[in-house]
Amino acid sequence: MNKSRHWPQEWNTDPKVLLVNAGNDEGMSKIANDGCFPALGVLALGTYIQKNIPEIEVLCRDGQVVSNKKIMNLYDSENITFLGISVLSTSYQNALDLAYQSACYGIPAVFGNDHAAQTAEALLNAHPYIGAVVGSEYGEEALEMLVRDSIGEIIDLDSIPHLTSTSNQLIKGNPRIFDIKKKLSELSIINSKLNNTGSRTTALDIFPIVDRSLYPEDHWATYLKRYKEKFGHLHNDEITGVTTMNRARGCSRQGHLICKHCDMGLDIAFSSPEKFWEEVKTAHKQIAANVFYEVCDSFSSFGRFVKSVADTKPKDLGFDPHFFVYGQAIDLVRRPKMVEYFKKIGVFRVNIGLEAGSNTTLQHMKGKFDSVAINYTALKKLKAAGIHAYGSFVLGTEAETPETLTQTVNFVKKIVTEGLLQDLEVQPILPLPNNYYGRDLVIKGIISRREDWPKDLGSISRLYIDQCSGISYNQAIEAAVELREFAAMYGINFGSGVSNESTYQS
Question: What's the distance, CA 174 to chain centroid?
Answer without folding.
Answer: 31
